[in-house]
Amino acid sequence: MTRFEPNLRIPGPTALPPSVREAGGRQMVNHRGEEFKALLLRVSEGMKPFFGTQHDVIMLTCAGTGALEAAIVNTLSPGDAVLAVPIGAFGDRFAKIAEVYGAEVTRLDVEWGQAAVPAAVRAAAAEIPGLKAVLLTHNETSTGVTNDIPALAAAVRDAAPDALILVDAISALGAVPFAMDAWGLDLVVTGSQKAWMSAPGMAMAAVGPRAWAAGETATMPRFYLDLKRHRDTAAAGETPWTPAVAVMYQVDEGLRLMQAEGEGVFARHAAAQAMTRAGLRALGFELLAADDVASKTVTAAWIPDGLDWKAFNGSLKRQGLVLAGGQGKLKGKIFRLGHLGSVTTDDILAAIGALEVAALEQGLDVQPGAAVAAAQRALIEATTRVAVPA
Ligand SMILES: *Cc1c(COP(=O)(O)O)cnc(C)c1O
Q: What is the pTM assigned to this prediction?
């Protein structure tokens, strides 16, 4: 163990900055009192610039999946025609939730590792009579691919102007620029443990006017996740049920840090991504996502034939580096490195250094220092936008 704390490089939960950890340890307050009212207002308002919305941001006490469920049950009725566009495990989950609640789901499956193609989405949407909603994933955490949400949303609007656009933005919102209103999205969700540098336990749903209107006639059953009830109680500065107060303290502090960093948040994630990709490639790993669709928050790489992953990962763990494996059909085939939330360029240099040591220990054909050097060059390029000689 070379670190006092592990280098937790999974795509959520993410490591918490010291001030966020301390915030989570603060004493409770009356969740029906003035302090909580101010906190709820500050956090939901503070979220809006990151969503790129003027609409309501609802704070839910649940995992991200709860917010996906809220998106479905608050806007749809059993039998509604829905187009799901899964590009990985999380898109698949979004589709399944709609199916479980009785929607008529058509799937436009995209090969895992690829992004959705706007023309294909336009064609699929045009073919479904009475299309009620389209389910999109912003950043597919299982493959490390980011969809072009504005292009996909425009394609949907073109083919089916009345269809709602519901977006799972759980794992990149906050880390990259996003513009819900300008892109014409109706409902967008995220979760506290991803880019928001907080513990798991809260999810946020931004709800536009078309989604609220759909909710008036939507008949899927809902109680705990009834967004209208949340909106109405939020107007009085409360949540309908006891909220995860400690997580809310953390999200509040995380937002304060992000507001102070400003645009630097996006630049930091972009640099971490570039360093990760350069470092992994220098070690000979093949990446799942092509450069033009690569996620800014998580990078997935194939485990090469012949690599003893258990031994390799054992070396990483001994060095304090914690990576994520593959999900669903990619289990055992890939590994994923998360670079979101409080990630620093130092964290990535350390991760690439540990991967390099593991590669050397496993007898891979690498030059000591080459991967770290590649990551350093990528860092300089990302921060100065000049090419660095190899
Ligand atoms: C993490 C994640 C989820 C699920 O969030 P939970 O909090 O685990 O329920 C859903 N979608 C995406 C894209 C995610 O990254």
A: 0.97
H or E element at residue 287: none
DSSP state of 11: S
What is the distance between the terminal CA atoms of the chain, rounded to a whole angstrom? 32
Question: CB under 8 Å to 29, separation ≥6 — which residues?
Answer: 35, 36, 39, 245
Rounded to whole angstroms, the maximal C-alpha distance in the chain is 63
User: Which residues pair with residue 287 across a beta bridge?
Assistant: 301
Best substitution site from 69, 171, 299 to test ligand 1's pocket, by max atoms within 8 Å of Cβ?
A: 171
Please tell me if the CB atom of residue 65 comes closer than 6 angstroms to any atom of ligand 1.
yes
**How do residues 86-143 score in pLDDT, each as one tens digit?**
999 999 999 999 999 999 999 998 999 999 999 999 999 999 999 999 999 999 999 9
**Quick check: CB of 86 below 6 Å from ligand 1?**
no
Domain extents in the chain: 18-259, 262-385
Contacts of 326 (CB under 8 A, 6+ apart): 142, 300, 332, 333, 334, 335, 336
| C-alpha span between 133 and 81 (Å, rounded) | 7
**Closest ligand 1 atom number to CA of residue 90:** 11
For residue 170, the CA-to-ligand 1 centroid distance in Å is 6
Q: Which of 85, 137, 139, 141 is the pocket-test mutation for ligand 1 (most atoms within 8 Å of CB)?
A: 141
In ligand 1, the atom with minimum distance to the C-alpha of 200 is 7
Ligand 1 mean position to 92 CA, how many Å?
11
**Which atom of ligand 1 lies closest to the CA of 12?**
1
Is 18-259's fold the same as 262-385's? no
- The whole-angstrom distance between residue 213's C-alpha and the CA centroid of its chain comes to 27
Question: CATH assignment of 262-385?
Answer: 3.90.1150.10
* DSSP code of residue 329: G
Fold of 18-259: Aspartate Aminotransferase; domain 2 (3.40.640)
What does the pLDDT look like over 329-358, one tens digit per residue? 999 999 999 999 999 999 999 999 999 999
What 3-state DSSP class applies to 355?
Answer: helix
Which among 188, 168, 190, 192 has a CA at the least distance from the CA of 180?
Answer: 188
